[in-house]
Specification:
With 514 residues, the chain is an alpha+beta fold. Helices cover 32% and strands 25% of the residues. It is built from 14 helices and 25 strands. The relative contact order is 0.12. Bound molecules: adenosine-5'-triphosphate, 2-acetamido-2-deoxy-beta-D-glucopyranose (3 copies) and magnesium ion. One of its GO terms (molecular function) is ATP binding. Pfam families: HSP70 (PF00012).
Length: 514
């Protein structure tokens, strides 16, 4: 694992935001965090997962730089460039192939692998530069660094494989099977981070002074609330401070970005008669800017109405439409656009600003909150989860007071609910610790049934006569095409655990099996 490397770099490649941390491979007690957005007056642990390619399909910018550049592009230019965000969700719940394509807002196709690998390449170069500056050392990718990339636990194997391929394309590793790349699961990484936290590391509610990992037998649920996915896992602390998974990875694609999606749907409802469609088609960059503003507004912790500036071109498109309709009315422009808000509940038009009531804002969170609480209840209501005492809420979306409040109200009587101070960074920092010692998660619960195809002595009572075969060599009568289960759904599987099965060939002269 990290033994040969000098450094460990952990990349949290998120749906909404990405970031990385690094440490010396031998001393993971000192984890260096990298902050983003200084050029834009910001200072955040992650940067937006947004990437911009020019019209020649060459990589231009990533993160805040991509966002800001795209926002300043005039509509005419914006159409020619390739801008991607939220593309990580394209790998969730789908069959993934290496030649998969992504579509831009205006319907152009672009290879997904390039989008992912260029993003990773940017993170890699950024990380290597930072390490060089910090250590006065020349670091070479292949020998000196062990990379950890986090992915949702609920992703399937083909998506994980795709990330590995993208990492190879980006030059993080030289071959697909390299041990210099560790794919870590987001909620596991968060769990590894949280378990070594003392009480001071947690806000929301206190605890005793001990570290979590000093109480073997403690069982807890970790909820990684991201922008794309909500990832849930249940762990028990073992005597040797390693972790045992108690429930298969669960969750779904109802992260914080569904709040923005719901807001967009609401705008579509307001700006009817094709106004919204025309706007998003003709002014994609400005529309994105408006959504970006909303992304900041929704993080407000005050329970008040929200003021959204309505940009020039949306006003223009809207006025234009209403003019067509109210051609014979001598109404002023302001009046025109306010017509869109008649009969709309939860929003008002006021001097170029859209005012959204607090109730309406809260309603945008409802879907995500409901799904998250439902999934937690489903897990916690199982009899085998009776000993769980804690719910640890991590991830960027864990900062949402709406989500936190609902979780708290629902579960506070039975569970202690804890949220680490830097809930968004818990995943990256935990990934460093995981990279240092992947054995820290000692066993897992299989989310799928795994098995192989075999033949068995033919039994007329159970086997299909169509599948009956006779071997050439010794006239052995067998049934072909049978499934032999090796691991079942919900089975406990130890890391590096070994199970032995003995199979023989149906024909002795066979030289290979698939
Ligand atoms: N205070 C807040 N209130 C509401 N939402 C918030 C708040 N802070 C962050 N978010 C939301 O949390 C999400 C980002 O969290 P995070 O960085 O953990 O996601 P990610 O890692 O990019 O996504 P994923 O893990 O699903 O790939 C975004 O949807 C963001 O808008
Ligand atoms: C808004 O419209 C104006 C005029 O049509 C155009 O010049 C400008 O680029 C547009 N802005 C954006 C961000 O789309
Ligand atoms: C810790 O204990 C678990 C279960 O008792 C075991 O499976 C695992 O191998 C141990 N890990 C280490 C590093 O000793
Ligand atoms: C709208 O703007 C006008 C002039 O700019 C101002 O007089 C008026 O008070 C504003 N209305 C509201 C509700 O803010
Ligand atoms: Mg995440």
């Amino acid at each position: 694992m990290a033994s040969k490397s000098l450094f460990i770099v952990a990349i949290d490649f998120g749906t909404s935001y990405s970031g990385y941390c690094f440490s010396l491979a031998k001393h993971t007690d000192q984890i260096r965090q990298v902050f983003w957005g200084h050029e834009h007056g910001l200072n955040t642990v992650k940067t937006p997962t947004c990437i911009l390619f020019n019209e020649k399909r060459e990589f231009m910018k990533f993160g805040y730089d991509a966002v800001m550049k795209y926002h300043t592009l005039p509509s005419r230019e914006a159409h020619k460039w390739y801008y991607f965000h939220h593309f990580k969700m394209k790998l969730y719940n789908k069959k993934i192939t290496s030649n998969m394509e992504l579509e831009t807002d205006n319907g152009e196709k672009f290879p997904a692998l390039k989008v992912f690998s260029e993003s990773l390449r940017y993170m890699k170069d950024h990380a290597l530069n930072t390490i060089r500056e910090a250590s006065y050392q020349t670091v070479y990718v292949t020998e000196d660094v062990t990379w950890v990339i986090t992915v949702p636990a609920i992703w399937d194997a083909s998506a994980r494989q795709f990330m590995r391929l993208a990492a190879k394309e980006a030059g993080l590793i030289s071959d697909m099977f390299s041990e210099q790349l560790i794919i870590a699961l987001e909620p596991e990484a968060a769990s590894v981070w949280c378990k070594q936290l003392p009480q001071e590391g947690f806000v929301a509610e206190g605890g005793n002074r001990q570290k979590f990992e000093e109480s073997p037998g403690t069982q807890y649920v970790v909820v990684d609330c991201g922008g794309g996915t909500i990832d849930i896992t249940v762990h028990e602390i073992q005597e040797n401070q390693s972790l045992k998974e108690l429930h298969k990875a669960s969750g779904g694609g109802w992260g914080g970005d569904t709040v923005d999606e719901n807001f967009k749907e609401f705008l579509k409802e307001i700006f009817q008669d094709g106004v919204w469609e025309e706007y998003t088609q003709n002014h994609p960059a400005e529309c994105h800017k408006m959504m970006y503003d909303f992304g900041l507004q929704k993080c407000s912790s005050s329970r008040e109405e929200v003021y959204m500036r309505c940009y020039h071109n949306l006003t223009k498109v809207a006025e234009h439409k209403k003019k067509d309709i109210s051609l014979f009315f001598d109404e002023c422009k302001q009046k025109d656009i306010s017509l869109f808000f008649e009969g709309v509940e939860g929003a008002l038009w006021c001097n170029g600003t859209i005012i959204i009531t607090y109730e309406k804002m809260k309603s945008f969170f409802a879907y995500s909150v409901r799904q998250t609480i439902g999934a937690l209840q489903e897990i916690l209501n199982k009899p085998e989860m009776a000993k769980v005492q804690y719910i640890l809420v991590v991830g960027g979306f864990a900062s949402s007071i709406t989500l936190r409040e609902e979780i708290y109200q629902t579960f506070r009587e039975q569970y202690r609910i804890l949220c680490p101070q830097e809930s968004q960074a818990a995943i990256i920092k935990g990934a460093i610790l995981f990279g240092h010692n992947p054995q820290i998660v000692a066993s897992r619960i299989s989310a799928l049934t795994h098995g192989v195809m075999i033949c068995e002595a033919f039994d007329i009572a159970v086997h299909d006569i169509q599948k009956k075969r006779v071997s050439k060599a010794d006239k052995y009568v067998y049934c072909t095409d049978l499934f032999k289960k090796l691991v079942g759904i919900g089975d406990l599987v130890e890391v590096d655990g070994v199970a032995n099965y003995i199979f023989t060939l149906t024909e002795p002269d066979k030289t290979s099996v698939t």
